[in-house]
Amino acid sequence: MVVSFAVILGLLIGMILRFDSGNSPSKLTLRSSPAITVPKIIATTTTVAPATTTTVVDPGSLPQEKILPGDSDPLFLSHMQDVWQAIITGNTSDAFPAFFPMTAYEQIKALPNPAADYTDRLIPGYEQQLYSLHSELGSNASIAQYVSTVVPSQYAVWVLPGVEANSGSYYRVYGTRMYYKINGILHYFTLLSLISWRGEWYIVHVTSFT
User: Fold this and answer.
1) CA 200 – CA 57 distance, rounded (Å)
2) Which of 6, 86, 120, 190 has CA atoms 20 to 30 A from the CA of 136?
3) Structural domain boundaries of the chain?
């Protein structure tokens, strides 16, 4: 059977057309790749807070103020706890925070060398008198319980310059009582003299003016 060239050519053209139409781009489904989200990098700056320091100001370096102190403010209560600790242990250095500041003493005393008087007379006297209270407790020192300290502020006097070799002024009060208990029984020590500085009471003489 002889097939003409024209027939063969026609068949080939038809096959090509059918192939193209079956793969027409219009029938192809193109799948798009899912969008990839790139995280945004945000530059951050860490701020370090500056270091803070607490500066303790010596109250004696400041000028005096005419303020009558009480006996219930936190500083006074802390000072009396220090004094009590010194009395029951015999370690008198514990009570130094409650002692009148030397820098304040230099401001109020009309003496040739108030600092020397402070270190050579007042401090040794303060320590000796505190230790005498410790000795008075004797074996009861380990069981004595502190109760409170009462300052008779109603009897305080504003001392003027020229009195007691002073060049400055302060409130002075006598007869402060430090109460404590031994086996439930109330006792007290009498603190001879307290004087004020800027609205706070400080001890200058415990049992005598030595």
Assistant:
1) 15
2) 120
3) 59-205
